[in-house]
Specification:
430 residues, alpha+beta, 5-stranded antiparallel sheet
């Protein structure tokens, strides 16, 4: 049983996580949960083989076994080329490179621009910007592969360097949540990897606010005999891939704000985040990521930039809900006249003597643009069918309850009429 499994068994009192607590998590964490002890909330997280804890936003992350503070260097150890990034956020993995906003992709092991294109550090002719993607000729591909190999090797060596030896076992108290400091010195800390947590003295009786108490330190295994060093930990990148869902589908092309493309873009965008709801689990993640699908320097990109600025103006970034974002998009880019025109065509486009497949393709395109509910679409679909097919549909028991089922039955009746019931030279279905 590893340290994380021991931690999950040690603190069984789980509770749901809040939005502010989610903002306190690092993108490098592979697991986390919220537990309560004696009425206090604690966040527990796994970073590689280490178990960390924190009382929540506004408090530092600490190692569970000795309560020493986790340094920024350890939190950002997985970020390749981080020394070239300005304004690096150690938890969110965001920053700037050459004046452009970027973020770190845990899945791709590289920095990306807000439009998800790869950032090539130190690139000149092969540098890729949000406006000018690179040409993937053979020389550039070989250069990128070589650079990736070098950086991954360097990262693994750095992670091995910052991994600390197991500390001596710490005597735990029978009390569930002892104070942070018991007067004992923390375990030895490798240089530039940890900052010891300051000792918190016992408050006086007149002090009304009680200090946050740490969860009990987790005993560690004894040191191995001299001459048998512990095995090197596996690469953090491989561990982070565990228990993380994969991205499905293809993200929509950057949207420029054209009204005629608005409905098609929104349908593609909504579908992309619907099938990846296991990756983007919060409103903040979905909306902030969706804003990167707008083309920079266009009306659509300027609108998205304004929303980003308003969200980041708060002390804790506030992107609102997905439904609020959807309504804001519709008001900005989908003209009411365009929607009303689509509704009119959906109700008036009759099948008549047209081929069913050809007619349905036209009708469904207009129906998709209306944004109305499925019941309204089913009613309009039946009204536009020839009388003969309408009468056949009335004989069904039970009646179709979804648009897909209704369309399939109408297609089947039309096909049967084409084969068996069509009089010679007739094109009318009754």
């Amino acid at each position: 049983m590893n340290n994380w499994e021991k931690c999950t068994k040690r603190f069984p009192n789980r509770t749901s996580i809040t939005e502010s607590e989610k903002e306190h998590l690092s993108i490098a964490f592979s697991n986390y949960f919220i537990a309560t002890e004696n009425g206090q909330r604690f966040i527990f997280a796994q970073l590689g083989e280490e178990v960390l804890w924190s009382p929540g936003p506004g408090h530092p992350w600490q190692f569970l076994d000795d309560n020493s503070e986790v340094s920024e260097e350890i939190l950002t150890a997985r970020f390749l080329n981080k020394e070239y990034i300005d304004n690096l956020h150690p938890l969110k993995g965001t920053g700037q490179y050459q004046g452009k906003d970027i973020k770190y992709s845990i899945d791709r092991y590289c920095w990306v621009y807000l439009n998800n294109r790869t950032v090539h550090i130190h690139g000149t002719s092969t540098s890729e910007t949000p406006e000018s993607p690179t040409d993937d000729d053979t020389a550039q591909v070989e250069q990128l592969l070589e650079r990736a190999k070098t950086t991954v090797t360097a990262t693994i060596q750095k992670l091995q360097a910052v991994s600390r030896p197991a500390s001596p076992a710490i005597q735990t108290s029978s009390i569930p949540t002892p104070p942070v400091s018991k007067g004992k010195a923390p375990a030895p800390i490798p240089p530039r990897t940890r900052t010891p947590a300051p000792h918190t003295s016992t408050p006086k009786a007149s002090t009304s606010q009680q200090p946050v108490q740490a969860p009990p330190p987790q005993p560690t295994a004894p040191q191995p005999p001299p001459g048998n060093p512990p095995p090197n930990p596996p690469a953090a990148a491989a561990m982070a891939q565990q228990n993380q869902p994969r991205i499905l589908g293809t993200a929509p092309d950057p949207y420029d704000g054209s009204p005629e493309k608005a409905i098609a873009f929104w349908n593609t965008l909504a579908n992309y985040y619907a099938i990846n709801d296991g990756v983007y689990t919060t409103n903040a993640q979905k909306v902030s990521s969706a804003l990167t699908h707008f083309k920079i320097g266009t009306p659509g990109g300027n609108w998205a930039s304004d929303l980003m600025q308003m969200a980041l103006a708060h002390q804790l970034p506030n992107y609102g809900t997905w439904d609020e974002f959807k309504e804001a998009f519709k008001k900005q880019f989908i003209p009411p006249a365009s929607q009303m025109e689509a509704i009119s065509k959906m109700h008036s486009n009759q099948m008549g003597a047209k081929d069913f497949a050809t007619w349905f393709l036209e009708w469904s395109n207009e129906a998709q643009r209306t944004g109305v509910d499925e019941i309204t679409k089913m009613w309009a679909f039946r009204r536009n069918l020839p009388t003969g097919i309408q009468q056949k549909l009335l004989t069904l028991s039970p009646q179709p309850t979804t648009l897909d089922t209704l369309v399939e039955k109408a297609r089947e009746f039309d096909k049967n009429w084409q084969i068996f019931g069509r009089p010679s030279g007739s094109s009318t279905r009754g």
